[in-house]
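Worked example

This section walks through a single chain of length 122. The input is the sequence exactly as stored; nothing has been trimmed or padded.
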Amino acid sequence: MTDTIFVTGLSIHARHGVMDHETEVGQRFVIDLELYTDLSEPSRSDRLADTVSYADVVATTTAAFKNTNYKLLERAAGAVADAILSNFPRVRAVKITVHKPHAPIAAIFDDVGIMLTRSRHP
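Given that input, the structure is written out below as tokens.
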């Protein structure tokens, strides 16, 4: 059985991108997370120690996403996945969506971004 903890709409200002102004000024990114884990124990015990702290997940995600400037969203999302899997042993896999709503693309669009899924055992 796999259950899911999710965080949606996490807004982070960072300096990722290939263009100079993206790394100088930065922009807003929006991150959605799905953490796949077994929630059977905390659903019975009602103890934080038996689950994954949402606050800790957000802090880990924010640090991993902001601490280094990457050219590619793929790499930034990979850093988040690595950090989550390293810091939260209860998480079996993580799905990360990174939205870049103000990407420098000469077109009218609602959203652009990437989605990746990483697990402990590929």
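What to look for: The longest helix spans residues 73-87.
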